[in-house]
Amino acid sequence: MQSFTGKHETSHDGSGPYKVQVLDRAVAILELLSNSASEMSLGELTAAIGLHKSTVHRLLMVLEGHSLVDKSPLNGRYRLGMKLFELGSLAVANLNLRERARSRLEWLVAQTGETVHLCVMDRGEMLYIDKLEPERSVRISSRIGRRVGVHCSAVGKAMLACLPVPSVREILRQRGMTARTPHTFTDPDLFIAELDSTRTLGYALDNEEAEEGVHCVAVPIFDCGGKAVAAISISGPSFRFDQQRSASMVESLRTVARELSQNVGSPKPGEAPLR
Q: Which pTM value belongs to this model?
């Protein structure tokens, strides 16, 4: 038997060569979906790979079971799953993003006098992979390794605003929308509308939604494919975040985000952080 990769595989007993062939085919499906401008049907994937329809269907079921692909409940077509986004976010963290970002985070703290965070999305939550605090009496205390909900954080909104609405709804369904304060969004439709506002503004806001008395602004960092893979934020007491000062913070965040996106390989570093 010859696989789509041109390799001859003869074992079907679950031994090494056959497992490699199955993995090759699964990767081929993911590559097809990543290169497609829209969702793909089972028939389109079958024709592109050149395998039997039942074989492709079995592979898709396995990939869907691991959240590597999503099947639309409306039309039965397939797209890449959120698990790939989460794995990609972690990969960025493992590629020394924290080390490369440290000097820029120090600059942000010096510019703003507020706490700065660098976050990635992990399993539908935002994970703090670095943070720096200013030398002042009233400041926001946090810790590396802390997790916060995507629905109640500026960094979460910054990341979700870059995703398709169906993907956002699925994350909200899986993780829930627990109220952290009276200002937390708990209705998916209202939150989707908030993300529309985030895209229009070009940055994300947390108006005491995760913690009362705390305000936060955030923007995403993009990889070479133009996908948001991390987010940076500035947090502080709400009384220090008036409109003029917040606008200045946003510009500082955008400057750093563009520089870090260039380091990650963003093809269009001059674009606004949220697209």
A: 0.64
Name the one residue in this structure whose structure tokens are 């963290």: 93
Assess whether 179 and 49 both reside in one domain. no
Within 10 A of 196 (CB to CB), how many other CB atoms are there? 11
Judged by phi (left if over 0) then psi (alpha if -120 to 50, else beta), residue 157 lies in alpha
Tell whether 119 and 45 lie within a shared domain.
no
Residue 110: Cβ within 10 Å count: 12
Torsion of CA 8, 10, 13, 15, to 10 degrees: -50
Contact of 142 with 115, CB cutoff 8 Å:
yes
DSSP class of residue 35 equals: H
pLDDT above 90 covers what percent of the chain?
54
Residue 234 pairs in a beta bridge with 116, 217
Count of domains forming the chain: 2
Question: Residue 126: what pLDDT?
Answer: 93
* pLDDT at residue 42 greater than cutoff 70: yes
